[in-house]
Each structure stands twice: as C-alpha cells, then as structure tokens.
Amino acid sequence: MILILIIYGAAASFLFVYSLVQSSLLYKYIFKKKELQQFTKVSPDFIPKVTVQLPLFNELYVVERLIDKVCELDYPNDKLEIQIVDDSTDESIEISQRKVAEWKDKGIDIVYLHRTNRKGYKAGALEDALESAKGDFIAIFDADFLPEKNFLQRTIPHFQNDEIGMVQTRWGHLNRNYNLLTKLQAFALDAHFTVEQVGRNAKDGFINFNGTAGVWRKECILDAGNWSPDTLTEDLDLSYRAQLKDWQFVFLENVASPAELPPVMSALKTQQYRWTKGGAETARKHVKNVIKSDKSISNKWHGVMHLMNSGVFVSILICALLSIPLLVIKSKLPEFNYLFVAASILMLSFVVLAAFYLTAFFKIRGRSLKNFFRFILMFPMFIIISMGLSLHNAIAVIEGYMGKKSSFVRTPKFNISAKSDSWKKNIYIPKKLNWLSLMEGVFALYFIFGIFLAFYFNEFGLLSFHIMLSLGFSTVFLYSVFQSSKN
Fold first, then answer.
1. Is the pTM of this model over 0.90?
2. Residue 179: CB partners within 8 Å, gap ≥ 6?
3. Which of 66, 107, 122, 394 could form an SS bridge with 317, CB 3.0 to 4.6 Å?
4. Average pLDDT for residues 126-154, to the nearest whole number?
5. Which range has the worst mean pLDDT, 11-15, 130-134, 148-152, 216-220?
6. Which of 144, 190, 235, 237 is the catalytic position?
C-alpha cells in the first residue's frame, strides 16, 4: 500500500513539475520574447547557394505536389539545388523520376538520389546526400509539406550572423478542420510552435529542429557530427549536439510552412510512437551532456525537461493505473485522507496547462469570445485523447529509456485537405488491429469499473479523472477499430 502511494506520488509530482516548466515557458513567451529581425527579402550581398533536400520513402500520394511546390521556390536558379533523397520501393519512384526530368527541362538544378538499402533510414539518407550537396545551407522538407514561395527569402537572411546554425519555422496545417483528430493535433502543435519554441528560444535556450520546414548551415551539421540514426528522432539529437557546441538557433514564429496532419488513428499512433520513443532515446543520450555543459542553470533545467517531456505519458499511465487501487485505499483507510487532499493540489496542473494552451490558441486563431468558447470545447477533448494515447506512448517511452531499438517507420501521407477527400483507399494504412489497440479497449473497461467503484464506495474525488480516462481509451480504441475496418 505504501509503495502504491509512493509511486503514485512520484508520477503526480512529475506532472506537476512539468506544468511548472510549461508555466515558465508561458511567462517567457509573454514577457521575454527574443525580438528577431524579420526579413522580407534576401539582402543583395547575401545570396548563398542553398540545397533543398526532400527525404522520401513510398510517398505515392504526395510526392508530385511536393516536388512541384519546391521547384517553384522564389530563389535564383543558379543559387538553388534540389535533391530528391529517395529510399522508396514502390511505384512512387517512377513519379519522382518523371517530375525530376520535367523540372530539369525547365532549367531547375534538381537531382534524383535513390538508395536501395535504407541504411540509417532518414538520417542515413540525409547524411549520404549531404556529401554531394552543393549548397552552404540545407533546407529540408518532409513529403507532407508545401512550403511558401518566399520560404528561403524569409529564412536565409538570418544566417548573415555566422553564429546561427539552424533556422526553424512554424508548422501550418493544410487539413486542420478535416476531423476531430486533425483538430486536436493542430491544437497541440500550435502550442509547441508558439509558446514552447519561442519560450525556449527567448533566452538562447535549447530548441529543436523539427525534422522539416527548417534550414541548416552545412558547416553546423558537420561540426556537430552529422546526422546519426541511433535515435528515432535524428532531428532532436542533432539539435542538441549542435547547441552543445554553442551554435545558435533561431525560431521564426511568424513564418508558417503548411503541412498535412494524419487523419487516421493508426497514422497518428505511428507518428506519436516515433516522436515519443525517439525523444526518450535522445534524453538517454544527452541529459548528462546538458547537465555537464557550460550553459546557464536555467537553460540546463529547461533542456533536461525538454528532453524528458515524453515521460509525461509514463506518469499519466502510472497515475491512471494506480487510481483505482487508491480509490479502494481511501474508502477502507480513512486515516490516509490527508494524502488525497494534498494530492488534489496537483489538479492545479490542469489550470496551468489551460492557460498555456489558451495563449497558443488565441495566437493562432485570434482573441475573441467565440474562440474562447471553442477553446473550452477543445481543451478537455485534447486532455481526454492524450490520456487515451498514454498506454501506446508510455510503452514507446519505456522502450526508449531501456535502449530497445526499433525500425524507423514513416508516417503515412494522404494528400487530404478538403473534408470531401477520403483516406479509405490508402495502401499504406495497416488493415488489422494490433494487440495494443485491443488493450486500449480493456483499459476503457477498467476505468469504467473505476466509475462504478466511485458510486459503490461513495467516493467521488477521482470520478472526473476516471470519466476522462474511460472516454479517452474508448475513443482511441473505437477510432482504431472503425478506421481499420473502413480501409
């Protein structure tokens, strides 16, 4: 019993500390933003050679639009090179080759680089392509992005400062309103690409390249040790290695790069698994390096918490699983009630997170009473689905902390923007449920049992928690079942 209380208390405390870190970022975002000069066009004396890399793997539905969009970038042709970095094994190869030939005939410096072994996955492909890259600066776009024409004009000028190693832009969302999943993903990502990134960047803290929609100085990549495939988040790993070598990063909140959000649960889970496990792997690799660095105490603290933030899902899962035994303990042993009163203070975490996400929501959607009521609906749904994904993501995080290796599985792309577009015939979506989806159904029943116990014991302190958990796991399970059966 005591062990249950200790473990629960440790997990809840981590969630509370996480909320305090988020409140610190919110404070920095509001009051201590780094004022970065926003360039509108390239300075006449600074037009460096740029290579745009497009890492691809079986992107049948989006590769054509991606190549077309990148070839339309507004930058001098003699200063621009485009590398199609393709590890594909399907018919998208022919599409890419045809588009490359088409744009070459139009005078674009575009090359097709195809590998047959996928060694090192995305990191390996980027490392191999870098050897032949002509540019001093490397822009990278994943297959689901459609950069604006003036992307290079608004990012490259920041490299006039020789200390700048990377410039990252905010992600926009092509299909934000397609369904509930895309709305909630946009809700979460908007907070990362406003409050979190700007807050961390405000005092030269650690931020991360987000794998796409950013530009690297080639010298910085090489100085930091080049791309490495030893984590699933090669972008986060290289970001920390570069910043630990004192390269500065710039985040441009006001430059948005539109992209597609996964509209189905299986694709979202694939993406979340890679992000959360890769984050844990990178934490395992770099937490000690951050602590030993010569950075300020504040930057070390935020850097460590940044690397450890995927641990939130482990803490949520622990608190969830132990909440029903705690309910029994509370009903049988009233002398421990004071511990539950103290634990209720941790509910303040939700208040802090609400302020955090509301600030981001207003930044992107605008301040209005209508948007406030939209937020009131969105925030609980976001928390509920996050809880429902906690089992899936916690397993990924634990595997990352333990050093268990797994393949880099790319997120399926769909070419969906309008609500009339359909994902149902996408050949990259798995057609069968896995054991983990079935376990999410079991967890939904477990927390429904917790709701029953609240009325049985006449103890309602955890009722709202169990309602959210049962709704979260039920929603994730039913999405997985429904979308698998429709494909």
1. yes
2. 263, 419
3. 394
4. 97
5. 11-15
6. 235
237 is catalytic: no
Convert the chain into a string of H (helix), E (strand) and C (coil).
Answer: CHHHHHHHHHHHHHHHHHHHHHHHHHHHHHHCCCCCCCCCCCCCCCCCCEEEEEEECCCCCCHHHHHHHHHCCCCCHHHEEEEEEECCCCCHHHHHHHHHHHHHCCCCCEEEEECCCCCCHHHHHHHHHHCCCCCCEEEECCCCECCCCCHHHHHHHHHHCCCEEEEEEEEEECCCCCCHHHHHHHHHHHHHHHHHHHHHHCCCCCCCCCCCCEEEEHHHHHHCCCCCCCCCCHHHHHHHHHHHCCCEEEEEEEEEEEECCCCCHHHHHHHHHHHHHHHHHHHHHHHHHHHHCCCCHHHHHHHHHHHHCCHHHHHHHHHHHHHHHHHHHHHHCHHHHHHHHHHHHHHHHHHHHHHHHHHHHHHHHCCCHHHHHHHHHHHHHHHHHHHHCHHHHHHHHHHHHHCCCCCCCCCCCCCCCCCCCCCCCCCCCCCCCCHHHHHHHHHHHHHHHHHHHHHHHCCCCCHHHHHHHHHHHHHHHHHHHHHHHHC
Mean residue pLDDT across the chain: 92
Which of the four CATH numbers 3.40.640.10, 3.90.550.10, 3.40.50.970, 3.90.650.10 does domain 37-295 have? 3.90.550.10
How many residues are present in the chain? 487
Candidates 87, 142, 190, 237; catalytic one: 87
Domains of the chain, by residue range, sit at 2-28+310-486, 37-295
Residue 142: active-site member: no
> Tens digits of per-residue pLDDT, 414-430?
998 888 888 888 888 88
Backbone angles phi, psi at 256, to 5 degrees: -105, 140
15: number of CA atoms within 13 Å, CB side? 25
pLDDT (tens digit per residue) in 304-344: 999 999 999 999 999 999 999 988 887 777 766 666 665 56
Structure tokens at 50: 């740029």
| Cβ contact 451:467 at 8 Å | yes
